[in-house]
Design brief:
Blueprint: H1 12-23, E1 30-38, E2 43-52, H2 58-66, H3 69-73, E3 77-84, H4 88-103, E4 109-115, E5 123-128, H5 137-140, E6 141-143, H6 154-158, H7 167-171, H8 181-184, H9 191-207, H10 209-231, H11 242-251, H12 255-267, H13 269-282, H14 285-298, H15 308-318, H16 323-334, H17 337-355
């Protein structure tokens, strides 16, 4: 078994030790489904899903397994299931649901393992494997290796970070703050003024023509300058042009402007990750949802891939009807991250093309996520 960073996972315990870095927190009372795709020479780790055991029902399990249908349909996909709980009755109930799903053909399970928690030295054991399978000795059971030595932990440790102790702490990274946009960047125009200006710019973009091109140049230029200031260490603390940050904040509340700046944001993931993290905490409504969505696209390239799922989880919970959130959640399970980012980038280019600002791009764009 090989994970997406080209590290070999020899035992189920190896994968369990990597889960805190994958999720950004130590999972507990959880069912984890890890999909492995056979590329002809090896099984590579694909999507990893986590479901709360509070308690999980057959419908929730079917939904989670169904989320991996795109990989199952491509052939050669197997799923490793891990039940993490200290409650024996809950463990047995979930394992029975998984066994029934496997027997009915709803999931091709590599095996199902249980553990009380993701702790170095903790034990795991095999609950069941497919009929006729002959698991390796280490697959029957063993001890979880050092979590801090897990391959996925490396990027976090290099930045002096550790996974959060639980899921709630991971979600609180994006908790709404009391500060306003002018607290984030002193001297910024009031957010209400920025929002009103963004509405006018969005209307101009929709109308097109020379006014639309000018509006496009205004908002994209502001985004570029805001990210440049941030990359030079002067963006969020009294940058030379703090109004640019307010313009970007206002743009996130308008769908046409969000799409216009998306390509610029994706081109500067490290600066964008820091800016969007702060903006997501001070904005509300669609602007906050869009900040969280764009954050989920740049977090991985910026080295914070463990926060992608948390950003989308917050957006999904707070804004269940937000279309881009839904599309990105679905795309996470169907496509590799770089493909998702490229589709969004193409959609951003299409805004420019419609205005005659750039050459036409024939591919699907943000709406292409649903294609």
């Amino acid at each position: 078994m090989t994970d997406s960073t080209e590290h070999t996972l020899h035992t189920p315990g190896d994968l369990i030790a990597n889960l805190p870095a994958v999720f950004g927190f130590f999972p507990e009372d959880s069912l984890v489904l890890a999909a492995f795709v056979d590329d002809g020479t090896r099984f590579a780790l694909g999507p990893v899903l986590r479901v709360d055991l509070r308690p999980v029902c057959a419908e929730a399990l079917d939904s989670a397994l169904g989320s991996l249908d795109a990989h199952r349909a491509s052939g050669g996909c197997v799923i490793a299931a891990f039940v993490i709980t200290t409650e024996p009755a809950e463990r047995d109930r979930v394992c029975e649901l998984l066994f029934s799903a496997s027997r009915a053909g709803d999931a091709e399970l590599l095996g199902c393992w249980s553990t009380e928690g993701v702790l170095a030295g903790g034990t795991y054991e095999l609950e069941f494997s497919p009929p006729g399978a002959e698991p390796l000795d280490d697959w029957y059971g063993g001890r979880i290796p050092e979590v801090v030595a897990a391959a996925a932990m490396g990027p976090l440790l290099r930045r002096g970070e550790l996974p959060e102790p639980d899921r709630q702490a991971a979600l609180e990274f994006f908790a709404r703050a009391e500060e306003e946009i002018d607290d984030v960047a002193p001297g910024t125009v009031a957010l209400t003024v920025a929002v009103e200006r963004a509405r006018g710019l969005a209307a101009a973009v929709r109308r097109g023509g020379e006014a639309g091109r000018a509006a496009f140049a205004t908002v994209v230029g502001a985004a570029e300058r805001a990210l440049t200031d941030e990359s030079q260490g002067q963006g969020l603390v009294g940058g030379a042009e703090p109004e640019d940050l307010a313009c970007l904040a206002g743009a996130l509340g308008e769908i046409h402007l969000r799409d216009a700046v998306a390509a610029t944001v994706l081109e500067r993931p490290r600066a964008a990750e820091r800016v969007l993290a702060r903006l997501s905490r001070v904005l509300t409504g669609d602007a906050r949802a869009n900040a969280l969505c764009l954050y989920s696209l740049v977090a991985g390239p910026a080295g914070h891939g463990h926060r992608v799922a948390a950003a989308l989880a917050v957006a999904r919970t707070e804004f269940p009807g937000h279309r881009l959130t839904r599309l990105l959640c679905e795309a996470q399970l169907r496509c590799r991250p770089e493909i998702v980012a490229e589709r969004v980038r193409r959609g951003s280019r299409q805004v420019a093309e419609r205005l005659g600002v750039a050459r036409a791009d024939p591919a699907g764009g943000i709406d292409g996520l649903a294609a």
